[in-house]
Amino acid sequence: MPESPIIAIDAMGGDIGPEVTVAAAGRILKQRQDVKLILVGLEDKIKAELSRLNLQTSDRLMIHHASELVGMAEAPALALRKKKDSSMRVAINLVNEGKANAAVSAGNTGALMATAKFVYKTLPGIDRPAIMTTLPNTKGHTHMLDLGANVDSSAESLFQFAVMGSVTASAVDNVENPRVGLLNVGAESMKGNAQVKAAEPLLQNSDLNYIGFVEGDDIYNGSVDVVVCDGFVGNVSLKSAEGVAKMIGHFMKQEFKRNLLTKVIGLIAMPVLKSFKQRVDHRRYNGASLLGLKQIIIKSHGGADEYAFGNAINVAILEAEKSVPQCIESHLGDLLQNK
Amino acid sequence: MPESPIIAIDAMGGDIGPEVTVAAAGRILKQRQDVKLILVGLEDKIKAELSRLNLQTSDRLMIHHASELVGMAEAPALALRKKKDSSMRVAINLVNEGKANAAVSAGNTGALMATAKFVYKTLPGIDRPAIMTTLPNTKGHTHMLDLGANVDSSAESLFQFAVMGSVTASAVDNVENPRVGLLNVGAESMKGNAQVKAAEPLLQNSDLNYIGFVEGDDIYNGSVDVVVCDGFVGNVSLKSAEGVAKMIGHFMKQEFKRNLLTKVIGLIAMPVLKSFKQRVDHRRYNGASLLGLKQIIIKSHGGADEYAFGNAINVAILEAEKSVPQCIESHLGDLLQNK
């Protein structure tokens, strides 16, 4: 465990950039006396933002200049080849050079994945890295992967996702044997597509706490800790859930705004509605990990605000404290030896 | 259009059976003076239920005896082979013999699909039938298919689902050219798994109002009328949405029950919460269609109550009025001729 984790922040990434990232860095430094942050990007812009926020650089809040930016719509391959001094690339380089323990970016997802994979390299025994995120459930939270790094995942890939997810969940949640489930369309063994059917025996014969097939609703009911799926399925599942949650919020607002009486009722109910809103606030779960690489990279939503981006920084801190890639590597080492 | 649609109801199907199905039939008959219902199942049980509800048989409410039951956990192939006088099978037979225009069942999904496919037969030009349901969105509703009849669907199957979905949506919603979208993990053409990429040109070159790729959240935001996907993906998407909706409801209840003050606020807010609850009530959308067969079969949730099962009967009435299978057949005829 690093004594005081150093996090490299792509200060220019995201839909908004330094206005969000620098403010989030300031917020986290106040909360956590034991971490150091490096703001990577255009020095002038970062300094301007610091002064606007009355923040000073220190040995806990550093600036590392990077002259280029990766656009949110830029082709990943081009960004990787041409933007060698981008804030994203330099933040990742700092981790690779041992000057930071983890990097965080709200930038272009494709470019971030390609760059991190290229610079960090994949862990031995991992064919393809996977995106994992944390989602709320009625009893706590669920980890889910892959959320879109891969489509058409093989059974072997699904098995590797399960190992990475289990090891990471165990490390960050301090849980011995997290329950791992394979996302399927029914709990019976005859159900499922070809990949899922082929992955089932690999999981059954592993040392994971594999609890069998789970269904979409299990993600949110607290019956499983790590949900494993192909990236296509995971992405659709996540966005469907986001869509229905947004619709429910929309309907609730409409009902409370229907007429003068319902508006008054809304005012009276405000404290309850507020604490309800906090519980379902998706910003609390911002910060997805690209697992399977030799170092830590956390992807924030592009549209994250200060609070949400701060949570992505917190995910980076936690994974750095727990040395997640080293945990995965050591578990994979055992698996590869036993093969 | 049949003058007064006759619906055959599997009165024994579902987790509860006649207590729900007979009551729902009574409710629908009161609402709709122009329909006739046939309750299929054990005559004694149905009669007992009718008398409990003070209902009489008439030329609008008939009983058709069937001596056997299909269990909710029974193997579909066995049910198909051995239970030739089951309430499910007989209801489907009545439609096939022209004695009813559509059948409804809350019974064993696998057995229902196998039996309907065997008795009705698949329409020419359709490789595999698909399950379609209606889901709420912020502006109205969305139709989505397939929801689990198929996994590993080919591009050609996805195209057939699109045709069936478009024709059905057009018929039941009285809409000229419903917007059809293909469910994917991003809107860019380079994204997607192999099936989706192969299906895209088939849809682009069709006469459907194909609007391109849509994502999971689009199902609920009103930007598309018919969402097409593989049954594995569709089932996960639907159950993920159900799961998150349930979790949100659970959190809301908890917040309003936190202490005496919040309970009082909950009482004050009750009328608003009630009308909100009505809007997100999934029972309103009960009743999925198995499309691609020569006749109409509607599948109700097994756990449906009287109100929910009544809505499944309404879906059957609507599809019978619009002669949905004939609409699909005629559209497919044009397509096959143009090949």
Q: In terms of quaternary structure, what is this? A: homodimer
| CATH class type of the largest domain in chain A | Alpha Beta
Strand content of chain A: 15-25%
Q: Using only CA atoms, what is the Rg of chain A?
A: 21 Å
How do the SSEs of chain A run, as a string of H and E? EHEHEHHEHEEHEHEEHHEEHH
How many strands of chain A?
Answer: 11
The number of helical elements of chain A comes to 11
The overall pLDDT average of chain A reads 93
Largest sheet of chain A: 11 strands, mixed
Shape of chain A: globular
Q: Please state how the strands of the largest beta sheet of chain A are arranged side by side.
A: 3-2-1-4-11-10-5-6-9-7-8
Function (chains A, B): Catalyzes the reversible formation of acyl-phosphate (acyl-PO(4)) from acyl-[acyl-carrier-protein] (acyl-ACP). This enzyme utilizes acyl-ACP as fatty acyl donor, but not acyl-CoA.
EC number (chains A, B): 2.3.1.274
InterPro entries (chains A, B): FA_synthesis, Phospholipid_synth_PlsX-like
Subunit structure (chains A, B): Homodimer. Probably interacts with PlsY.
